[in-house]
Amino acid sequence: MTDTSSRLVQSLVENARIGYSLEQDFYVSDAVFKEDMARIISRKWIVAGHVSRIPNKGDYFLFKIGSEQIIVIRENDQSVRAFFNVCRHRGSTICSAESGNAPRLVCPYHAWTFGLDGQLLAARLMPEDFNKAENSLIACHVRVFHGLVFINMSQDAPDDFDATFGDMGPILAYQGIDTARIAYAGSYPTTANWKLVVENFFECYHCVPSHPEFCSMHAPETLVAVGAGPSSGPADAIANFAPKVKAWEDKAAALGRPIGSLDDAPESSHLRLLMQRMNKEGWSSETQDGTAPAPLMGNRTAPDGGRMHLSFSPFSQIVADDHFAILFQFTPRSALATDVEMIWLVNGKATEAEVDIDKMTWGYHATTTQDKVITENNQAGIMSTRYQPGRYSDQEGSVMKFQKWYLQHMAAPKAA
Ligand code: FES
Ligand SMILES: [Fe+2]
């Protein structure tokens, strides 16, 4: 089975045309999705959530990805653990609630009981030669970085976390992601392949036709040049935009903001991206009228008028202004289903009265609701017998980069 799906992927990759959307099978096939899981999704550091979801010992939440379920649980003040939600007896899931608190993890089937460190503590009536120490829960790699819980399902050593993401630390610290609190969470499950969700997020060619609210919050020249990353737009638009960003960077740096952008090559492990630039003239944050919906975030003592898009990988992204940040999670569930979650973060010290939820969520709630529709339409059209890969525009540079990254991962020899 694996060989069949491997061979299918190999021939698809060999026939892929750079500069064109992918062949239908990449977006619809269960066999390709299986390879996506094995070669990419299981091997990347992916944000599972914000650590404020599990402040107390035994607090947990479930993170579902592909056909895997990961229990992310607080072991103690210092330690967050992650385990596959699979009992070592006969394989039942152990946690069924999306979140909760458990002093011990007790399987509901035959009551095997595991500690918060995953060790099997109790299993009734087992034969004499049964070894509890060999039946701990299967751990998943986990790392908390500036308040974000990353998991990595790799069976072998994952990419070194600090080498991969360390340089993003100062940006996250400035934004105060670690001490932020969740003000609102929205779920936009999308009936489409994960690559269509990512491709849509990585281009702003569709912004004008599809996103009136989003476009009202941004200058048109900005969206054309860098609407979906530092190299998303046509070269001349990027060149014209660069001096304006530089002028803003000088002011923002004087206020203490770590400035600069990142644009990983397709050969990179995680295809990270960071675009920092000024918000629209007169807009202090991405709201309907540009006024602030919440207190300043992080280390700011004054608004710097900036807006950033930080991508840890195609699966985990942050968009942030002076007053709020949104964590976007694109989580593949199957060939034709992707969970899309948005978590709005605000200054951890902000009171409820200081945060105007409706104002803060207005723009991106509308935009992501529209993205769900257009991405599902994209998937539906691709299901047709008459679909064929189409040519990309000059405003789809980040999509092309994503495709190169994706195809390289699919072409690489598979780890044992
Ligand atoms: S499957 Fe969990 S105790 Fe039996
Ligand atoms: Fe969009």
Description:
- It is a single chain.
- The protein is of the alpha+beta class.
- It has two domains: 46-152, Rieske Iron-sulfur Protein; 167-409, Alpha-Beta Complex (Naphthalene 1,2-dioxygenase Alpha Subunit, Chain A, domain 1).
- 30% of the residues lie in helices and 22% in strands.
- It has twelve helices and 17 strands.
- It has helices at 2-15, 24-28, 30-39, 161-165, 169-175, 194-201, 207-210, 212-216, 220-226, 235-254, 357-382, 397-411; strands spanning 46-50, 59-65, 68-74, 80-84, 99-101, 105-106, 113-114, 120-122, 141-145, 148-152, 181-187, 262-263, 273-278, 306-313, 316-320, 325-334, 337-346.
- It has a seven-stranded antiparallel β-sheet. Strands 4-3-2-5 form a four-stranded antiparallel β-sheet, with no helix packed on it. A three-stranded antiparallel β-sheet has the order 1-10-9, with no helix packed on it.
- β2 and β3 form a beta hairpin.
- The protein starts with a helix and ends in a 5-residue tail after the last helix.
- The model has no long low-confidence stretch (mean pLDDT 96).
- Bound molecules: FE2/S2 (inorganic) cluster (FES) and fe (ii) ion (FE2).
Report the radius of gyration as a whole number of Å. 22 Å
Protein structure class: alpha+beta
CATH architecture of the largest domain: Alpha-Beta Complex
Number of self-contained structural domains: 2
Number of helices: 12
How far apart the termini lie comes to 15 Å
SSE succession: HHHEEEEEEEEEEHHEHHHHHEEEEEEHH
Kindly report the spatial arrangement of strands forming the biggest sheet.
11-17-16-15-14-13-12
Task: Please report which band the strand proportion falls in: under 5%, 5-15%, 15-25%, 25-35%, 35-45% or over 45%.
Answer: 15-25%
Ligand inventory reads: FE2/S2 (inorganic) cluster, fe (ii) ion
Question: Which term fits the overall shape?
Answer: globular
The average pLDDT is 96
What is the helix content? 25-40%
Low-pLDDT parts are none
CATH topology of the largest domain: Naphthalene 1,2-dioxygenase Alpha Subunit, Chain A, domain 1
CATH class of the largest domain: Alpha Beta
Oligomer: single chain
- The CATH superfamily of the largest domain turns out to be Naphthalene 1,2-dioxygenase Alpha Subunit, Chain A, domain 1
Beta strand count: 17
